[in-house]
Amino acid sequence: MKGNTKRKWLLGLYIFTVLSAVFSSVAYAAGDPMSAVNNLSNFIFGLIRAIGMIILGFGVVQVGLSFKSHDPSQRANGFLTLAGGIIITFTKEILNIITG
């Protein structure tokens, strides 16, 4: 296989795996609709938390590099990325606090 074809095939396999995991977790609780919704909600919030952790790590690296290069604009962007990563990581907890 060529590189581009192989990459598309692996992307399709990854998408299929993720979608099958989502739908199997929803179908697993077929007896109780609320448990299916809760399972899907937990899965989605888990994905959001993972993305937030990646952004948080990127913000830490950006702040560290800004201190090394003495670049104030990069430092400001790093702290904004860091704050955004914290907010995205703790989205579920923030929503629980807001809704009571």
Question: What does the model show?
Answer:
Keywords: Membrane, Signal, Transmembrane, Transmembrane helix. It is a single chain. By secondary structure, this protein is mainly alpha-helical. It is 90% helix and 0% strand. The model has no long low-confidence stretch (mean pLDDT 84).
Annotation keywords:
100 residues, mainly alpha, 4 helices, flat
Secondary structure layout plus pairing:
Elements: H1 3-28, H2 33-69, H3 72-89, H4 91-99
Give, in order, the helices and strands: HHHH
What's the mean pLDDT score?
Answer: 84
pLDDT < 50 stretches:
none
Distance between the termini: 54 Å
- Rg, nearest Å: 19 Å
Query: Strand-residue fraction?
Result: under 5%
DSSP strand tally: 0
Derived structural class: mainly alpha
Biggest sheet record: none
Shape: flat
Fraction of residues in H or I helices: over 70%
Number of helices: 4
Signal peptide: 1-29
Transmembrane segments: 45-67, 79-98
Protein name: Glutamyl-tRNA amidotransferase
Keywords: Membrane, Signal, Transmembrane, Transmembrane helix
Brief synopsis:
The chain crosses the membrane at residues 45-67, 79-98. The protein is mainly α.
